[in-house]
Structures are given as structure tokens and as C-alpha cells.
Design goal:
CATH superfamily of the largest domain: SGNH hydrolase
Protein name: SGNH hydrolase-type esterase domain-containing protein
CATH class of the largest domain: Alpha Beta
Organism: Methylomonas rapida
CATH topology of the largest domain: Rossmann fold
InterPro entries: SGNH_hydro_sf
CATH architecture of the largest domain: 3-Layer(aba) Sandwich
Largest sheet: 8 strands, mixed
Helix content: 10-25%
Oligomer: single chain
Number of domains: 2
Strand order of the largest sheet: 4-5-19-18-22-16-13-11
Strand content: 25-35%
Length: 446
């Protein structure tokens, strides 16, 4: 490492706002990999723009929910919830230069959060309005990366994706050069892991810089298929740097005796579960499978796991149209809270899911997950359903879906847990529900 000083000379900034003086981290990728394996951490503070605003937890009258088409939420799904997010902010129209004071102030909040990583978005907003120079961009992001590194934080950043804001040749030229700097130079100067995001939603048939219309809702922001493509890349890039285990690792709750987890049957033992109308086959003890809204037929079966104890609960579902639901849920009365769970404890329900590739490329279904706090009339819901977005299973995939973390609200007398799939069209899909449990984060080890 070496001390360095640079003056980016960005127009509109006082000299001291752009000059960077500190420690330059000269790290190649193999060294970063070795360091991360020896000291794995998973708490991530998010600082960014409107892309990252989607990753926030929404509070509606005390019930919490997360969005299904946020890139970070989908990344965590594919990484089996190995990331633990602290959402600092995602402010529309903000980038390192268009909103430099915002980014600079917010990295202070990220440092103060106690997170091990800062997910700092390199923003397309830096290209609108006007054309920022390559040197201005490099100076500002170098300042941000160096400041975070000097505070002991590692950084996750990205190349800038396609956008209808890249509407001039000059902007696209700077965009391409800056992305090259992010990919090849920044990781060698700073402790930053860069996720390529410049190609997944690009339209090869246009030269305007806009994202492909089938992968973005407005020429800029990815829809669910576009976000899923980016999330697949993000999960692959981040995999070596994070603890290689899900929060579900080692949990095999078979009732309510464990003070750290509640589940009637977290590994799907037995075949005495209940079946709704139009559902045939075998269902795990303590759970039910149903199709709602006249949701077509479902054939349930048990598949022995080869990677650990228990079974997959498999369902071959043929919804009879759009807007149908397949529910896998705790049956009977609400699950009682045991002595280890108390009002105010922070809990989260997680469920491992696997989806086979659809034979029809338009075979679109997507999941959500839910805790209902009986007696309190509150819920925690992961991946709100949104009928305007297609879904994920154009190719097979596997991951862990989770509700947001939520304190057990006053008045709670018990809980219901549920994982569901929502249909867009009438097309058969094979899904599997794996390990699942409601975890008490107030009782588990950090």
C-alpha cells in the first residue's frame, strides 16, 4: 500500500472536495479472495439510487414487505439469504457527481452502521444531465472507495448498465471508458468487488444506449426478468467472498421446542399433511398444499434429499390461468409461540425453493413468503406479488426466499407460515419446497 494524493479538478467543486489523500490499497483479485475466505462477513450497507430504493423494506401500518423485482433481493434469494442488508438509502436521481453531497453523507451512515461491506452503486445518473468527464467520475468514485476502505469497510460496486439517459455519443464514450476502469482498474487500487451490470439488459439492435424493452420497464430500470439476469451475475461474483451457508444451515425444527426456530416440520418428514381441492399425492406432516382462486390442479410428492436430512416437498402445478396461487402452509390452528419466543423478538421465516425450467418460455410464475401474526393482525411478507412483471422460471433455479426481519408485535397469540407461487398464465411448472423455519434472530448467535 502507498500514500497518494490526487486532484480530480471536477467542475463545480471546491478544491478540497475532490482532492483525495489517504491510503491506496494495491490488491489484486487473488489477494482479495484469500482475505475474504479467511475473514468472511455478510452484513452489507446499501447506498445508491432508484435501483436500490427497490431493496428497502416497506412498512404499511406495521406490516412489513419487500419487493420481488429488486436486484439485491433477488441476489439474496439466489445466494440462500447469505447477505444481511442494512438499507441506508436509494435516492432517485442520485449518483456520485449528480448528488455527490448525498453519496458522501450517506457513506458516513454506512460506516456508522457497523456493516462489513458497503454496496455503493456506480450510477447512470452521473450521465444525466450533461456529460461528466471520465476524470471527474474516476476522482469521485476513488474518493468514495478510499474513504470506505480507510474506515475498514470493503466495497461492492458495479459497472453502469444501459439507459435511455445515454442519449449522446459523448455520454456513451465516457460510459464505456468508465466501465472499463471499474472492471479492470478499481479492483486493483481499492478493496472493491465489481459486479458487471452493463450487458445483461443491453439491446444489441439499438445504438441509443437504452435497455432492451423486454428487460426494462422504462428504458432504464430492469423489470423482474432483467433484475433476475443481473442478480444471477451478482450472486456468481459475490459467492467466494461471503460465508458459504444459509441462515437455515443446521436447523431441523420438528415442533416448537427449539428457542431459536419454530416450524411444525422443517425438513418435510412424513405424509400426513392436508390437501386442498384439486390436490393429490403426499404432503409432509404439519403442512397443507392448496390451490386458490380455482387455481388448477396440483400433484404433490416427496423426494428424498441427497444433500442432507429430510425431503423435498415437490408439486407439479398446472394453474388454469393468470392470478392463481399455489400455497404451502402450516395447517390447523396458529402455531403457538414457545417459551423461547417473546413479544419484541426479531423473527424471520425462510424457505428453500427450487424451480424446474419451464418447457414453455412464457411459463411465468413467481414466489412469495409470508408470516401472519395471529391476534396482532400484522404480516411480514417477502416478495410482494406484482402482476405487471413476468417471473423467474424461464430457466431452472434454486434459492432461499425470506420475509423481512420483524419484531413479534404486541397482541400476537400465534403464527401462520406460508410460501406460495403466483401464476401469470396457464402452464405447468414443477416446484419443490425444501428446508424451512421461522428463525428467532434475538436468540441466535451473531
Amino acid at each position: 500500500m502507498a500514500e497518494f494524493e490526487t486532484d480530480g479538478g471536477a467542475a463545480g467543486y471546491e478544491d478540497g472536495m475532490v482532492r483525495i489523500k489517504g491510503i491506496l490499497y494495491l490488491c489484486d483479485e487473488s489477494r482479495l479472495h484469500r482475505l475474504s475466505i479467511s475473514n468472511p462477513k455478510n452484513k452489507v450497507a446499501i447506498v445508491g439510487d432508484s435501483f436500490d430504493e427497490r431493496a428497502k423494506i416497506t412498512d404499511t401500518a406495521g406490516s412489513l414487505s419487500t419487493e420481488s423485482y429488486a436486484v439485491w433481493n433477488l441476489t439474496n434469494l439466489l445466494m440462500s439469504q447469505r447477505l444481511d442488508f442494512i438499507h441506508i438509502d436509494g435516492i432517485s436521481g442520485t449518483g456520485a457527481l449528480t448528488g455527490a453531497s448525498v453519496y458522501r453523507n450517506r457513506i458516513g451512515a454506512a460506516i456508522a452502521s457497523g456493516a462489513h461491506w458497503c454496496a455503493l452503486r456506480a450510477s447512470v445518473n452521473d450521465f444525466n444531465p450533461g456529460t461528466k468527464s471520465f476524470d471527474e467520475l474516476v476522482a469521485e468514485y476513488s474518493y468514495l472507495f478510499a474513504t470506505l476502505n480507510a474506515a475498514g469497510m470493503r466495497v461492492i460496486s458495479n459497472t453502469v448498465g444501459p439507459s435511455n439517459q445515454l442519449d449522446t455519443t459523448a455520454k456513451r464514450s465516457v460510459w464505456a471508458k468508465f466501465n472499463q476502469w471499474m472492471l479492470h482498474t478499481a479492483p486493483r487500487l481499492f478493496d472493491v468487488v465489481v459486479i458487471p451490470q452493463h450487458y445483461q439488459c443491453a439491446d444489441p439492435d439499438v445504438l441509443t444506449g437504452a435497455a432492451k424493452s423486454t428487460l426494462a420497464v422504462d428504458g432504464l430500470h430492469p423489470d423482474l426478468p432483467g433484475a433476475f439476469l443481473i442478480a444471477q451475475t451478482a450472486a456468481s461474483v459475490l459467492d467466494p467472498y461471503l460465508p458459504n451457508k444459509s441462515p437455515l444451515f443446521g436447523i431441523a425444527a420438528l415442533g416448537t421446542a427449539d428457542e431459536t426456530a419454530i416450524d411444525p416440520n422443517s425438513i418435510n418428514i412424513g405424509t400426513s399433511g392436508a390437501k386442498g381441492a384439486n390436490v393429490t399425492g403426499n404432503v409432509a406432516n404439519g403442512f397443507s398444499i392448496r390451490t386458490t382462486a380455482n387455481g388448477g390442479t396440483a400433484v404433490a410428492s416427496k423426494v428424498a434429499r441427497t444433500d442432507g436430512p429430510g425431503y423435498w416437498q415437490q408439486v407439479v402445478w398446472t394453474p388454469d390461468g393468470a392470478g392463481k396461487l399455489l400455497d404451502f402452509y402450516s395447517n390447523g390452528s396458529a402455531i403457538a409461540l414457545n417459551a423461547g419466543f417473546a413479544i419484541g423478538d426479531v423473527v424471520q421465516y425462510l424457505c428453500e425453493i427450487e424451480v424446474d425450467a419451464g418447457s414453455n418460455p412464457a411459463n411465468v410464475h413467481y414466489p412469495y413468503i409470508l408470516i401472519t401474526f395471529a391476534g396482532a393482525n400484522k404480516t411480514a411478507k417477502g416478495f410482494t406479488t406484482n402482476s405487471i412483471h413476468p417471473a423467474l422460471n424461464k430457466a431452472g433455479w434454486r434459492g432461499v426466499i425470506a420475509t423481512p426481519k420483524m419484531a413479534i408485535p404486541d397482541g400476537t397469540t400465534g403464527i401462520y407460515i406460508q410460501t406460495s407461487f403466483y401464476s401469470k398464465i396457464a402452464a405447468e411448472v414443477t416446484v419443490r419446497f425444501g428446508q424451512h423455519a421461522m428463525i428467532n434472530h434475538s436468540k441466535t448467535l451473531a
